[in-house]
From TrEMBL:
Pathway: Purine metabolism; 7-cyano-7-deazaguanine biosynthesis
Residues making up the signal peptide according to the UniProt record: none
Binding of ATP, residues: F14, S15, G16, G17, Q18, D19, S20, A21, T22, C23, L24
GO molecular function: ATP binding; ligase activity, forming carbon-nitrogen bonds; zinc ion binding
This protein's encoding gene: queC
Official protein name in the record: 7-cyano-7-deazaguanine synthase
EC identifiers of the protein: 6.3.4.20
Pfam family, one: QueC
UniProt KW keywords: ATP-binding, Ligase, Metal-binding, Nucleotide-binding, Queuosine biosynthesis, Zinc
Binding annotation for Zn(2+): C202, C217, C220, C223
Similarity comment: Belongs to the QueC family.
Length: 237
């Protein structure tokens, strides 16, 4: 399973969603040690952070090698992001498309801030490799998910910290169906089932109804994207 054996430690941006859970498994299959970082920024779907413990337990149970590699988990609280944002992710307003063509779930600069905090923590802990689930294929038009943005930020962080920082984005060119397939390749049906059951995607933070793709309202853009990806994946398995 280990394609690129490494004696390095990676820091994974781990929110408790489908993408970051898959990225965590990806990192565990490549690095010798993996730490995680999550952010409490006043998101409506704060429940996603609570999903992390079950995912971590489950991922460790799937593969003893992975369990041995899992290191510290960090949670940073960034209330400032909600204070300066007026978005459907941080306020109780309906999700809609804005005049700029972006959905109002867009939190300006969110990934730039997350990756910069992650890099600062990585620096302090002697880690040079950061893994994030940014994706240009299925993205909702968020400009901070684009590969060009990530590459530019990698350059800025490396310059600004005078230390090589590599930003890994294994999902960048994968759609949601391909992300399910990657989970299958990394950890078999056990990992797919774990992510389906215990990862959280719904923007509204709903976990009441169980669909074949997992829990969520089924109507918000994140749920629809996850549902479509699952049906495409399931049709191809
Ligand atoms: Zn939803």
């Amino acid at each position: 399973m280990t394609e690129h054996a490494s004696d390095k430690t990676a820091l994974v941006l781990f929110s408790g969603g489908q993408d970051s859970a898959t990225c965590l498994a990806w990192a565990l299959s490549r690095f010798s040690r993996v730490e995680t970082i999550g952010f409490d920024y006043g998101q409506r779907h704060l429940i996603e952070l609570e999903c992390r413990a079950r995912l971590l337990d489950g991922i460790g149970a799937i593969n003893a090698d992975w369990a041995a590699k899992l290191g510290d988990g960090h949670t940073l609280t960034i209330p400032t992001l909600a204070e300066i944002s007026d978005t459907a992710l941080t306020r109780d307003v309906a999700i809609a498309m804005g005049a700029d063509g972006l959905p109002n779930t867009f939190v300006p600069g969110r990934n730039l801030i997350f990756l910069t905090f992650a890099a600062a923590l990585a620096y302090r802990r002697g880690i040079a490799d950061i893994v994030g689930g940014m994706c240009e294929t299925d993205y909702s038009g968020y400009p901070d998910c684009r590969n060009d943005t990530i590459q530019a930020l990698q350059t800025a962080l490396t310059l600004g910290m005078a230390r090589d920082i590599t930003l890994h984005t294994p999902l960048m060119w994968r759609d949601k169906a391909a992300t399910w397939k990657l989970a299958k390749d990394l950890g078999g049906d056990a990992l797919v089932d774990l992510i389906r059951e215990d990862s959280h995607t719904c923007y509204l933070g709903e976990r009441g109804a169980r669909h074949d793709w997992g829990y969520g309202c089924g109507e918000c853009p994140a749920c629809r994207l996850r549902a479509r990806g699952w049906s495409e994946y399931a049709a191809g398995v």
